[in-house]
Specification:
The chain has 328 residues and is an alpha/beta fold. Helix content is 45%, strand content 15%. It contains 14 helices and twelve strands.
Length: 328
């Protein structure tokens, strides 16, 4: 009888142990779901910018984007690597900001964003195609025949980085990851803004541009270095245009920046290098403050590209490194 009681007690202990493990595992799973918000993510219905209700049965693993830079950049920030990108060979695969993703394996080029190569897209066997409502609406039937298609408002997502990340995160069931990307980058911008105060004088001005062989400079939108409390706090010269604008060499001299950053894309264009060689013999050029103080920097075009998260993060690090060296 005593043996039977001992056996029964042993069984009860095992059952209680297993029940405890199961309860613990269930509790952990519930906790994980509460923290990540991943319960019942798939299937999900996403209403795109053209009003199409797109049903995604499972998480897309093979995504093609018909827009260059902005769309693939946001995907990468969410730890999603696209398999095909418009203009990848002339931009994305060549730019420094994305080298850690592309140096060992290039992303497939699916043609220009204006004329995507449908045959190439078909060969990639995507399970999701992300298009721009401004450029690809007429191709809906052809694209839909290949894979589910989601249209995103390019201008809206391009003018508000946080909104762009949120929209892609909502599409892909990565709301928590998207919020983390936004918070981390905004914190980095705020920290960098304070750090730059000690590296760049408040009375110093900064210009970002490209140089071209026609003798002019394409000024980038001053949002790259906004003076508001939400940006990097770098000052642009007085009478700097509100939007992107082409100015002559004389126009750059009138702006007379203390620091001049010139974006160049060596993969496809050498006009900046050619133009700068011509400028070196010009008295106008050599009288610009940045030139006289050796504060002209030729940098990769990927810095802050489309103000997208990965490019912006990269640009901040590269910019800080230059200003720290210049300060020394």
């Amino acid at each position: 009888m005593q043996t039977i009681r001992k056996a029964a007690a042993a069984i009860i202990v095992v059952v209680l142990f297993l029940t405890g493990c199961t309860t613990s595992e269930t509790s952990n799973q519930v906790s994980e779901i509460q923290q990540t918000g991943t319960e019942n993510v798939w299937p999900r219905t996403y209403v795109d910018s053209l009003g199409y209700e797109v049903v995604l049965d499972k998480e897309p693993k093979r995504i093609v984007t018909l827009m260059h830079v902005l769309y693939p950049d946001i995907l990468l920030s969410l730890d999603v690597e696209p398999i095909g990108v418009a203009g990848a060979d002339t931009m994305f695969n060549q730019w420094e900001a994305y080298s850690r993703y592309t140096k060992d394996k290039g992303i497939a080029d699916i043609g220009s964003y204006e004329s995507p190569n449908l045959e190439k897209i078909y060969e990639l066997e995507p399970d999701l195609i992300i298009a721009a409502s401004e450029y690809h609406e007429q191709a809906y039937d052809q694209l839909r025949a290949i894979a589910p298609v989601v249209y995103v408002d390019y201008m809206k997502t391009g003018s508000d980085r946080d909104e762009g990340v949120r929209e892609f995160a909502k599409m892909l069931g990565k709301e928590a990851e998207g919020a983390a990307v936004i918070n981390k980058l905004n914190q980095k911008i705020a920290i960098t803004r304070e750090e730059l105060k000690g590296l760049v004088g408040e009375d110093k001005t900064v210009v970002f541009s490209t140089a071209n062989s026609n003798g002019g400079f394409w000024l980038y939108n001053k949002n790259i270095t906004p003076t508001s409390q939400s940006g990097l706090g770098l000052q642009v010269p007085q009478k700097y245009p509100d939007g992107e604008e082409l100015v002559t060499l004389e126009g750059m001299a009138l702006l007379n920046p203390d620091y001049l950053f010139i974006f160049t894309d060596n993969s496809t264009d050498t006009s900046s290098d050619e133009a700068l060689k011509e400028y070196t013999t010009s008295k106008v050029w050599n009288n610009i403050s940045a030139v006289k103080n050796n504060h002209v920097f030729i940098v990769d075009r990927s810095w802050f590209a489309r103000e997208a998260p990965v490019a912006t993060d990269y640009g901040i690090d590269a910019l800080l490194e230059i200003f720290k060296k210049t300060k020394l």
